[in-house]
Amino acid sequence: MNEKTLRVLEYNSIIQRLATFAQSDSGRELALNLKPVSDSLLIEQWQNETSEAEAILSMEGNSFLSPFPNVKHSLRKAEIGSILSPGELMKIAQVLALISSVKTRMSEHKPKVEPVLIPAMIEGLQTQRILLDNIRRCVETEDTLYDNASPELANIRRHISRA
User: Fold this and answer.
1) 81: Cβ–Cβ under 8 A, 6 or more apart, which residues?
2) Domain spans, the chain
3) pLDDT band, residue 138 (cuts 50/70/90)
4) Which of 24, 55, 89, 160 is found 20 to 30 A from 115 (Cα to Cα)?
C-alpha cells in the first residue's frame, strides 16, 4: 500500500490509537511498527488471534493481562553472564509472576474457552517458578538485596556491621 493511501486512510492515527492499548513497551513497539499486508493466510491468522483475544478478554475482563516491563535487555545481559541489578531482577520477577498468573487463569477456564491459538501460545510460556521464588527471596527493593541473599553477602554485611 502506498504512502498516499495510508495518509488518506489515516493509518498512522489508527496505529497510534492501537498502541495505547498495549500492555508493554514491546507490545507498543510492535503496534507502532505494524504495516498493511496482502498475504491472505497471514491476515486470516491475525484476525483469528484478535478474535480469540477479544473472546478471552470479554470472559476474563481487562484485568486478565496487566502491564508489564520490557526485560529483553536484562535477559540479553544474563545470557552473556553480566550481573543484573536488583531492579532488573524485580522486573523479571514481575514478568514471571504475570506468566504464572495468566497460565493459571487460562487453565482454570479451559473448559469454557473456545479459542485455541492464544491458549497454545500461553501454554508455551515457561513459568520458571524456582527462579521467581529465588528472586523474591533475595531481592528486597530495586536497589537492595536481602542480607541472606547469599552466605557470602551475609558474611560481608556482618563484618561491616561489626566494624
Assistant:
1) none
2) 1-36, 48-162
3) very high
4) 24
Of the pLDDT bands very low, low, confident and very high (cuts 50, 70, 90), residue 139 is very high
3-class secondary structure for the chain? CCHHHHHHCCHHHHHHHHHCCCCEHHHHHHHHCCCCCCCHHHHHHHHHHHHHHHHHHHHHCHHHCCCECCCHHHHHHHHCCCCCCHHHHHHHHHHHHHHHHHHHHHHHCHHHCCCCHHHHHHHCCCCCHHHHHHHHHHECCCCCECHHHCHHHHHHHHHHHHC
* 3-class DSSP state of 24: strand
